[in-house]
């Protein structure tokens, strides 16, 4: 099998879209990721898969803390921004913008990582384990804080190289 064939087959699996964030000192870093999954309820664990040659890889491992912002369907521009190489983003922004491209965010109360405003939900994590995974590193984090911010929007979904726009969820029955 070829890598291209594998990629085309995997692209048929629809995924949610997140932006992962970390910080080194006062500098925030972020990257778009659709390789984010829940792992365990006891303790609360999640996993993200990060390419070893990604700009985000070394800072994430060094920081040991990271955030996850689960993107809403109206946040495709945010996803596209953080999917670009960090050097290209900074060049287009005219220099240092603290790494977030001007996107509105709040700072997580437990880790100090950026959490993007408008997200469906957000998580703050502390790395508890890393494992080699081919050209990626599997990073397992314990969730130290989470919030659900929006019930009024559908998720941003990635499928076959593009974004899908699912219908907004129906209001939940309060009973």
UniProtKB/TrEMBL annotation:
<protein>
    <submittedName>
        <fullName>Flavin reductase family protein</fullName>
    </submittedName>
</protein>
<feature type="domain" description="Flavin reductase like">
    <location>
        <begin position="10"/>
        <end position="165"/>
    </location>
</feature>
<dbReference type="Pfam" id="PF01613">
    <property type="entry name" value="Flavin_Reduct"/>
</dbReference>
<keyword id="KW-0560">Oxidoreductase</keyword>
<dbReference type="InterPro" id="IPR002563">
    <property type="entry name" value="Flavin_Rdtase-like_dom"/>
</dbReference>
<dbReference type="InterPro" id="IPR050268">
    <property type="entry name" value="NADH-dep_flavin_reductase"/>
</dbReference>
<dbReference type="InterPro" id="IPR012349">
    <property type="entry name" value="Split_barrel_FMN-bd"/>
</dbReference>
């Amino acid at each position: 099998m070829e890598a291209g064939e594998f990629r085309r087959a995997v692209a048929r699996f629809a995924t949610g879209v997140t932006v992962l964030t970390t910080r080194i000192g006062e500098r925030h870093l972020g990257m778009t990721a659709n390789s984010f999954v829940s792992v365990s309820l006891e303790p609360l664990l999640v996993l993200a898969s990060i390419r070893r040659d990604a700009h985000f890889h070394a800072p994430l491992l060094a920081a040991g803390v990271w955030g996850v912002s689960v993107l809403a369907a109206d946040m495709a521009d945010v996803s596209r921004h953080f999917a670009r190489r960090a050097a290209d983003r900074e060049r287009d922004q005219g220099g240092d913008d603290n790494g977030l491209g001007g996107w509105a965010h709040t700072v997580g109360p437990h880790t100090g990582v950026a959490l993007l405003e408008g997200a469906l939900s957000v998580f703050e994590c502390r790395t508890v384990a890393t494992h080699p995974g081919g050209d990626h590193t599997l990073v397992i984090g314990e969730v130290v804080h989470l919030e659900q911010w929006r019930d009024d929007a559908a998720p941003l979904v990635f499928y076959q190289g593009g974004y899908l726009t699912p219908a907004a969820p129906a209001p939940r029955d309060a009973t």
